[in-house]
Amino acid sequence: MMEFDWWRRFLVRLRMLFALPWERVRKGSVLSMKLKGTIADQVKSSFSSGLSLPQICENFIKAAHDPRISAIYLQIEPLSCGWGKIEEIRRHILNFRKSGKLIISYVPICGVKEYYLACACEELYVPPSAYVGIYGLTVQASFIRGILDNVGIEPQVQRIGRYKKNCEMLTTLLDNIYENWLDTVSSTQGKSREEIIDFLDSGVYQVERMKEEGWITNIVYDDEIISMLKKKLGQKEEKRLSTVDFRRYSRVRKWTLGLEGNGDVIAVIRASGSISRARGPLSLPGSGITSDELIEKIRTVRESKKYKAVILRIDSPGGDALASDLMWREIKLLAASKPVVASMSDVAASGGYYMAMGAGTIVAEKLTLTGSIGVVTGKFSLQKLYEMIGFNKEIISRGKYAELQVAEQRPFSQDEAELFAKSAQDAYIRFRDKAASSRSMTVDQMETVAQGRVWSGGDAASRGLVDAIGGFLELLQLLSRRLTFPKIVKLVEVSRRSPSLPEIVAGFGQSLFGLEKTVKEVLQELGSSGVQARVDGILFERLEDSSEGSPIIGLIKDCISSL
């Protein structure tokens, strides 16, 4: 909590008197926020649906300092985001509680993620018919090689890094999440680890038992919570509870509440989604990272004198190797001109980590999934499939390796396989050596933490891949200490151009069948009561476009991407 002197408090009240109509909030109001489903790391526009992590966190900060807000009513339903975002939201809940204001949670469907967040609140309520599924955490590995064999498809894959597909790695990640869950819930609820483990292992599904054993505050319906809030806040029972919802409160500017300075400006560049070199003709702007668009943002910030520092916010599992390298170069140039700090969200692995290496400092959440310094690349041989369906394709070529990337109707020849392996090894060496240089390690030291292994943020920090653990607030404090910034700075989101109506319409269908179910979603699901990490027999960071002109291969790629 920021402490304001009398003059700043006076200015805030004066600004509120002349606030814009949509910023007006009745004194004694309750901020009502519903957390549900996917939470994006990008800032949402006024016309976008869904939740945005930056706006959620900002609402907590504003509500803590806003004299018009008396409490927060947090309704938590099943969440499909990763543990990095969960950690950051939970930290903001705890910071809000330092304001002395009430925050209560209501959880109709309660899994491990939902309970983890809800128990950070001062009070936790569930309805009598709540679905409770706090049974533990699982990780699942699905393999599709048998399916491919049955349909005549032979994946020819080069994996550089022994951890690109490894049960040991997944077990360690699961253990990190499980241990963190036990420790956090134990300290919050004032119970021993043994009690927490017994609770999980007993298969609790009855809310009455949760109340009896002190896991929740009470069993009530939503309308009863509203009545209770009126009493707690001293409002009359016959009058309607004064509330402000998430979307409306998001329109209240930080400046109005004295939370934004007029001096030093810090640019925030967000990079979310899988990485590619260029956006397809049907791609909706905002879906994934394209090197051209991000490089344009970086150059704009580098050439501007108004930005004193840069926060590079990354939420990406990687993707195209060339695009990652081009962006890394621009980030390095940016870091040479002004301080750049990389902030990791749910995942910053492979190409996501590649980008972070260009920053001067890397900050991650304890459960961010990062690292994955390795290479996976390959192609499909459809020889048997073509024979089964009676399809024939003839290629006429000149040059020993001319058919390396286009001949999907046959396997690699021995010479082609050797060249392909050398190419993958060369890509790995470049990645590894740049990582070693950026982290001031020897190649041998980097090799021990590379090999394609994915680390949790905590383990990555202890091994030198990450500098500090924390979220946006910790990152700003770090910048303030290092660069002697004032406590209150101005953050400016460097956003891409708004999409035109034709682009929105054209991209709608693509967004429904988007190809972004990449490693991020595989790793992202490593959590919740339905936690999954699908390590399919073929997970590609870089799938060579060996199928141009072949609708059959294109269809297969689409199918594999959606598995």
Could you describe the 3D structure shown?
The protein is α/β, with parallel strands linked by helices. The protein folds into 2 domains: 6-135 and 203-256, 2-enoyl-CoA Hydratase, Chain A, domain 1 (Alpha-Beta Complex), CATH 3.90.226.10; 261-561, 2-enoyl-CoA Hydratase, Chain A, domain 1. The chain is 40% helix and 19% strand. The strands form 6 sheets. Strands 12, 15, 16, 17, 18, 20, 21 and 22 form an 8-stranded mixed beta sheet that branches. A 6-stranded parallel beta sheet has the order 10-7-5-4-1-11. Strand 4, helix 3 and strand 5 (102-106) form a beta-alpha-beta unit. The longest helix is centred in the last third of the chain and has 25 residues, at 414-438. Residues 506-563 have low confidence and may be disordered.
Tell me what portion of residues adopts beta-strand conformation.
15-25%
User: Segments where pLDDT lies below 50 for 5+ residues?
Assistant: 506-563
Class from helix and strand fractions: alpha/beta
Overall tally of structural domains: 2
What global shape is seen?
globular
**Helical segment tally?**
21
CATH architecture of the largest domain: Alpha-Beta Complex
Mean pLDDT, rounded to whole units? 84
Please provide the count of β strands.
Answer: 23
CATH fold field value of the largest domain:
2-enoyl-CoA Hydratase, Chain A, domain 1
